[in-house]
Amino acid sequence: MKDKLLFESVERELNRQRSNIELIASENFVSEEVLELAGSVLTNKYAEGYPAKRYYGGCQFVDEVEELARKRICEIYGAEHANVQPHSGAQANTAVYLALLQHGDKVLGMSLADGGHLTHGHPLNFSGINYEFYSYGVSKETETIDYEEYKKKVEEIKPKLVVAGASAYSRIIDFEFMAKVAHDNGALFMVDMAHIAGLVAAGVHPSPFPYADIVTTTTHKTLRGPRGGVIMCKKEFAADIDRAVFPGMQGGPLMHIIAAKAQCFYEVQQPEFKEYAKQIIKNAKAMEKVFKEEGFRLVAGGTDNHLLLVDVKASCGISGKKAQRLLDEINITANKNAIPFDTEKPFKASGIRIGTPAMTTKGFKEEDFEEVARIIAYRLKNEETDEIKEECLKRVAKLTEKVTMYSNIKYI
Ligand code: PLP
């Protein structure tokens, strides 16, 4: 018997996903096959352990599923070993730290204020609590990673581990250089490629393989799978990583999600995925062009990947928080984001982060994204009036009405 109250909430969310322009850089729309598997009977199965080494009976079929997932992701990235069990990106990073570090060890990661992630050493996160984290960041002039400063820090601090990767960084990351510096100074080099995993898989962003000792990712961002995490590593770290995930940090793996991951990896291996990844970047470039024409200041001067950080404070004299609300009101979903050297508190922020993956999945091309950027500029640069709001809503509806994805899904 369905809980009507609950299903109606899900249906409202489905309608929001249908009618909004989704620009959250870390979100995407999964295929109906991924949805089906994530909601499959595999949710019923306990499978602590790994294929052929389980602590429960009846695992022969989920073993096949997990093997497919492991094999496919290793093929995609040329990885030596993969653990597909982490429930999320944060769990994947936790497991890596658990496998490689002792309490109090020194680690160097990208500063959250400059685009890094909470799990890269934020003082309120388990990473910052348990390990002695230091941070590198971007230069004030270019707002791109200050590689010289990074090198100096590695040489001075001599960390046991260096973490590369970011949540809000719009330029290519030089993994080769970062790995060389880390290794020359006796550190292990880990890349958290959560945001760019799909771009790397398609060859449109340089790969952290083979420079990195360990690579973590989420599966739900540009990779376009279910919410989840994966760890890939060189063979020599495989046993430690597997032990850190289970029994170190998790109990039973989410076999329905692992099945959905395997389906996602299958999709990544199809030729269409390359086209999608290329289009993500073309679309980000199309937005960059319009924002520049409209006189907006873009952090780091623009983008090489799937996201843009727009300095709305410098461009329109409003906070990121207000910009997020103004866009929400016209059915455009983005998030406020701190920019490097931000003078506002993170909850207010001076920027918004805009990503193209989700609407690229829905079929938007350059001309659509140009129109989205024009709508955003029109809304943010003008007075907050009902007329402008109504006009923007109409322009958004015109863009979304041609989208067919999820039109046949029903939840009630
Ligand atoms: N790593 C990076 C770089 C991220 O951007 C994120 C999420 O935004 C994560 C890890 C954490 O992923 P999850 O939300 O699945 O824990």
CATH class of the largest domain: Alpha Beta
Helix proportion range: 40-55%
State the oligomer: single chain
Largest sheet: 7 strands, mixed
Provide the spatial order of strands within the biggest beta sheet: 4-10-9-8-7-5-6
Mean pLDDT across all amino acids: 97
From the spread of the alpha carbons, the general shape counts as globular
In total, the number of strands is 15
Which value, in Å, is the CA radius of gyration? 21 Å
Tally of separate helices: 16
Q: List the uncertain runs.
A: none
- What small molecules does this complex bind? pyridoxal-5'-phosphate
Residue fraction in strands:
5-15%
Distance linking N and C termini: 12 Å
What do we call the CATH topology of the largest domain? Aspartate Aminotransferase, domain 2
Question: How many separate domains make up the residues?
Answer: 2
Notes on the protein architecture:
With 412 residues, this protein is of the alpha/beta class. It has 2 domains: 32-268, 3-Layer(aba) Sandwich (Aspartate Aminotransferase, domain 2); 282-400, Aspartate Aminotransferase, domain 1. It contains 16 helices and 15 strands. The chain has helices at 4-19, 32-38, 60-77, 89-100, 126-130, 147-157, 175-184, 197-201, 235-245, 255-268, 271-293, 312-316, 320-328, 357-361, 366-381, 386-400; strands at residues 21-22, 49-50, 53-54, 81-83, 106-110, 132-136, 161-164, 188-192, 214-218, 229-233, 297-298, 307-311, 332-333, 335-337, 351-355. The strands form 4 sheets. The protein has a 7-stranded mixed β-sheet with strand order 4-10-9-8-7-5-6, with helices on both faces. Strands 11-12-15-14 form a 4-stranded antiparallel β-sheet. Helix 7 links the parallel strand 7 and strand 8 (188-192). The protein starts with a helix and ends in a 12-residue tail after the last helix. The model has no long low-confidence stretch (mean pLDDT 97). Pyridoxal-5'-phosphate (PLP) binds next to helix 4. It catalyses: (6R)-5,10-methylene-5,6,7,8-tetrahydrofolate + glycine + H2O = (6S)-5,6,7,8-tetrahydrofolate + L-serine. The record marks 220 as: Plays an important role in substrate specificity. Its cofactor is pyridoxal 5'-phosphate. Its main location: cytoplasm. This is Serine hydroxymethyltransferase.
